[in-house]
Amino acid sequence: MNVSADCLFCRIARGEIPSRKVHEDAEVLAFHDIHPAAPVHFLMIPKSHVDSLLTSGSEHEAVLGKMVALAPRLAQEQGCGNGFRLVINNGPDGGQEVNHLHIHIMGGPRPWKRM
Ligand code: 5GP
Ligand code: ZN
After folding, report:
1. Pocket residues for ligand 1 (CB within 6 Å)?
2. Nearest-angstrom CA–CA distance, 23 and 77
3. How far, in Å, CA of 90 to CA of 103, rounded?
4. Is 104 in the active site?
5. Is the model more confident about 3 or about 75?
6. Was domain 8-107 assigned CATH 3.90.1150.10?
7. Which member of 35, 100, 102, 104 is catalytic?
């Protein structure tokens, strides 16, 4: 497991910083975003640190596939049975602010921000 001592999301994964958990297993953690941009907005991270898709490789295929496959179940459990959106911001020009790869999972009744 690749971990970073001062990475915010590694610290959340270790339980050093509290979060409102949606799901946890050996490889993945999902928790509510502290500043929700939609009625339902949570984040899913691999517990093993990787900065973003810019620095991920074939060794991450399994966990990335697991995360995308898990998203619809968690979204529906959070009340997004009518649909949801996945967003991954990558790097400065991608608007990424926390440099630990994460999927935003957003949904709930509209209106909320269009893309
Ligand atoms: P990014 O802009 O990097 O794609 O998204 C980072 C997300 O992390 C933002 O939506 C922000 O609200 C959320 N966030 C930042 N700090 C914390 C925190 O300490 N706890 C939680 N739960 N979310 C955070
Ligand atoms: Zn990290």
Report:
1. 8, 17, 19, 31-35, 43, 89, 95-98
2. 10
3. 10
4. no
5. 75
6. no
7. 102
